[in-house]
Automatic annotation (TrEMBL):
<keyword id="KW-0436">Ligase</keyword>
<dbReference type="Pfam" id="PF07973">
    <property type="entry name" value="tRNA_SAD"/>
</dbReference>
<keyword id="KW-0547">Nucleotide-binding</keyword>
<dbReference type="InterPro" id="IPR033728">
    <property type="entry name" value="ThrRS_core"/>
</dbReference>
<keyword id="KW-0030">Aminoacyl-tRNA synthetase</keyword>
<dbReference type="InterPro" id="IPR036621">
    <property type="entry name" value="Anticodon-bd_dom_sf"/>
</dbReference>
<feature type="binding site">
    <location>
        <position position="350"/>
    </location>
    <ligand>
        <name>Zn(2+)</name>
    </ligand>
</feature>
<feature type="domain" description="Aminoacyl-transfer RNA synthetases class-II family profile">
    <location>
        <begin position="197"/>
        <end position="502"/>
    </location>
</feature>
<dbReference type="InterPro" id="IPR047246">
    <property type="entry name" value="ThrRS_anticodon"/>
</dbReference>
<comment type="subunit">
    <text>Homodimer.</text>
</comment>
<comment type="similarity">
    <text>Belongs to the class-II aminoacyl-tRNA synthetase family.</text>
</comment>
<dbReference type="InterPro" id="IPR002314">
    <property type="entry name" value="aa-tRNA-synt_IIb"/>
</dbReference>
<dbReference type="InterPro" id="IPR012947">
    <property type="entry name" value="tRNA_SAD"/>
</dbReference>
<feature type="binding site">
    <location>
        <position position="479"/>
    </location>
    <ligand>
        <name>Zn(2+)</name>
    </ligand>
</feature>
<keyword id="KW-0479">Metal-binding</keyword>
<protein>
    <recommendedName>
        <fullName>Threonine--tRNA ligase</fullName>
        <ecNumber>6.1.1.3</ecNumber>
    </recommendedName>
</protein>
<dbReference type="InterPro" id="IPR002320">
    <property type="entry name" value="Thr-tRNA-ligase_IIa"/>
</dbReference>
């Protein structure tokens, strides 16, 4: 979908205008072609065509050349409003345009949805001899489109209006930027993104896989990927213990009434796997049996742990933490490697606090998230304060508690000096939140850590603590997850580091490379010594030559390769090579251990 308010966006105007030039160029090459729609999209534009034959890569080159010739004429874009009859006459040979005109005449927008009157005005933009049904906006003239600032990227199939029962059209995607330098940078980013694609690297590095027999969106973690997860979990688990968190473990499912009480059943119902009913001995459903759900959230379970015994103000703050796996029924078309899955693990914690403790505990959570980001080398991020959309019925609770929660978050963001924005409609249904939006090396944004203030679920579950005054009071909850989804966090880290993890995080930190078979025993003895120091080590005892073993280790992005031969064995040493190609020469095993342990300790 195009941006909501494109009027003041120069890139929107540029991309929209270039899409019109694309349509003109295609019709000049294929006069019998039919045109559909051509909106700007993020980083570019596309246009859909019904053409007499499939397009080839050579066609794209010809179309680009034609576009540059059109741009060179520098014709102005002219806007006019027309009646439905005038529009039908103008586009009498364009059936897709005629369908759009019929919709506009009935008060529908270009996507076939009911629209405001201002969005159903029938208007066109004309440049040179080409006129298109369009509400704009556009640049002033073709001269504002840099001839070396655009490129056609690919062709794909697209059903008309996204309906598989309608004609399949050819969609040409392109990108355009104000300068050739910006275009080149974008194209570099795209190529770099392919190299860093976590799905590709996940296979090559042996981290994870997916199986059609297991199911879409259900990741299978391979040994090295499991080690990577374990390193991350142990790192955060230790940080949490040092900050007073208590570990808990909850089941992967719960009774449906639990999620009805919390509100998740009503709010997330479309994304929850179907309910499961108890089965009789004859394998039929028991109509009187309990109904269960795969859990979509961990918080109701943690609330029940809180409620399992009487609580006093002296017990608070109570910080419960779990690496809890949850399940969401994401549509298959939305699944993207580890970044969008149906089963994922959240580094979930719920803090139960008194009103007097809320601000201090919230600030401590923000400090923990910043510590995690700093350790991982994630420096380019922005905080986003997600508020409710006033009047939207999905948000539960009174205006008063929402104001308290929202003020707590904004005050905390101010006190920490965070670079933050405020966005309505981004709150959880039970309370506002502070999300951390990370920008990776390619400029893409990912939501990672989150912290939320919640007055409402404690009220729905009627949990209490005895105050210093001897009276019953309602605690406030803080929901937090520094990683967010571990799956998404790992996928992001893979792409951020291009698979070359820092030494402390690498699944395999060291590969021993014996020069010949007679050096394998010494290599294994060195590996045992490194293992005893808590290092993650492999020995390449294959029949490959030494150089091939080194290349294999470099492809696997292992930080250190230790080559051992006669000289090293006699001296009790190793010849150290880094994955970057640096050769550090021969040093003693003890010296190498001290070096790598210092590197690991200093990184964290």
């Amino acid at each position: 979908m195009p941006p909501v308010n494109p009027d003041n966006d120069p890139l929107y105007r540029l991309r929209h205008s270039t899409a019109h030039v694309l349509a003109q160029a295609v019709l000049e090459i294929f006069p019998e072609g039919k045109i559909a729609i051509g909106p700007p999209v993020e980083n570019g534009f596309y246009y859909d065509f019904d053409l007499p034959r499939p397009l080839t890569p050579d066609d794209l080159k010809d179309i680009e050349a034609k576009m540059r010739k059109i741009i060179k004429a520098k014709h102005r874009f002219a806007y006019r409003e027309v009646s439905a009859d005038e529009a039908r006459e103008l586009f009498k040979n364009q059936p897709y345009k005629l369908e759009l005109i019929a919709g506009l005449a009935k008060g529908e927008d270009e996507y076939g949805e009911k629209a405001a009157a201002s969005d159903t005005i029938i208007s066109t933009y004309k440049h040179d001899s080409f006129e298109d049904l369009c509400k704009g906006p556009h640049v002033e003239s073709l001269g504002d489109i840099p001839p070396n600032g655009f490129k056609l990227l690919r062709v794909s199939g697209a059903y008309w209006r996204g309906d598989e029962k309608r004609p399949m059209l050819q969609r040409i995607y392109g990108t355009v930027w104000p300068s050739k330098e910006e275009l080149d940078h974008y194209l570099w980013q795209q190529e770099e993104a392919k190299k860093r694609d976590h799905r590709k690297l996940g296979r090559e590095l042996g981290l994870f896989t997916f199986s059609q027999k297991v199911g879409a969106g259900l990741a299978l973690w391979l040994p090295k990927g499991a080690i990577l997860r374990d390193v991350l979990e142990r790192f955060l688990r230790q940080a949490q213990i040092e900050r007073g968190y208590l570990p808990v473990v909850t089941p992967h499912m719960g009774k449906i009434d639990l999620y009805k009480t919390s509100g998740h059943w009503y709010t997330y119902r479309d994304g929850i796997f179907p309910p499961m009913r108890e089965i009789e001995n004859d394998d039929t459903e028991n109509p009187e049996g309990e109904i269960y759900l795969l859990k979509p959230m961990n918080c109701p379970h943690h609330i029940e742990i809180y409620a399992s015994e009487p609580r006093s103000y002296r017990d608070l703050p109570l910080r419960l933490a779990e690496f809890g796996t949850v399940y969401r029924y994401e549509h298959s078309g939305e699944l993207t490697g580890l970044l969008r899955v149906r089963s994922f693990t959240v580094d979930d914690s719920h803090l139960f606090v008194t009103p007097d403790q809320l601000e201090a505990e919230f600030l401590k959570v923000v400090d923990l998230i910043l510590f995690v980001f700093g350790t991982m080398g994630l420096k380019d991020f922005q905080a986003r304060v997600g508020l409710r959309e006033v009047g939207n019925p999905k948000y539960i609770g009174s205006d008063e508690v929402w104001e308290k929660a929202q003020n707590a978050i904004i005050n905390a963001a101010e006190k920490k000096g965070l670079n933050y924005i405020v966005v309505e409609g981004e709150a959880a249904f039970y309370g506002p939140k502070l999300d951390f939006i990370f920008r990776d090396v390619l400029g893409r944004q990912w939501q990672l850590g989150t912290v939320q203030v919640d007055y409402n679920l404690p009220e729905r579950f009627e949990i209490e603590y005895t105050g210093e005054d001897g009276q019953k009071h309602r605690p406030i909850m803080i929901h937090r997850a520094p990683f967010g989804s571990i799956e998404r966090f790992v996928g992001t880290l893979i792409e951020q580091y291009a698979g070359a993890f820092p030494v402390w995080l690498a699944p395999v930190q060291v590969t021993l490379v014996p020069i010949t078979d007679r050096h394998v025993a010494y290599a294994e003895s060195v590996a045992a010594k490194l293992n005893a120091q808590g290092l993650r080590v492999e020995v390449d005892a294959s029949n490959n030559r030494m150089n091939a073993k080194i290349r294999d280790a470099q492809k696997l992005k292992i930080p250190y390769m230790l080559v051992v031969g006669d000289k090293e064995e006699e001296a009790g040493a190793v010849a150290v090579r880094q994955r970057s190609g640096g050769d550090l020469g021969s040093i003693s095993v003890d010296e190498f251990i001290a070096r790598i342990k210092d590197e690991v300790a200093n990184y964290q």
